[in-house]
Design a protein that fits this description.
Elements (H helix, E strand, L loop, with lengths): L1 E10 L4 H17 L3 E17 L2 E13 L1 H13 L3 E9 L8 H13 L17
Antiparallel strand pairs: 1-3, 1-4, 2-3
Helix pairs in contact: 1-2
Amino acid sequence: MALYEHVIIARQDISPQQAEALNDTLKALIEAGGGTVAKIEYWGLRNLTYRIKKNRKGHYSLLAIDAPAPAVKEMERLLSINEDVLRYLTVRVEELDLELSPVLARRDRDRSDRGDRPDRGGRGGYDELQL
C-alpha cells in the first residue's frame, strides 16, 4: 500500500467537535477501503492567507495514511462533495512521519516558554504608574 499525508481545511462555521467528527469519518472510510490511519492531528482554527469561499479562518487537520489508491480516491471524492470542506491536499510520501508535526510542536514549545519567562518588574508597567 502507498503512504500519504493528507491535509484538510474545513469551514470556520463548524465547531471543533464537528471537525473532529469529520476526521473520524475519514478514518472509518480509509479503514473500510483496506487502509490504516497512523496519525490524526487537529491543528485548530487558524487564519487563512486569503479568503476561500468567503471564509477568513479554517479548521486544519493532518492525517498520515497507509492505504490503497482507490480508498484515497474515494475519500477525495467525498471531500469534494462535502460543503464543510474548503480545501484538501493529499501528498504521497516515502515514509510516514509519526512525530508531532512542526505546527503542533511550535505551539507546545510556545506554551512551555511562557512559564519560564523571568519577571519583568521595574520596566514601567501599570503597577508603577504614579498619579
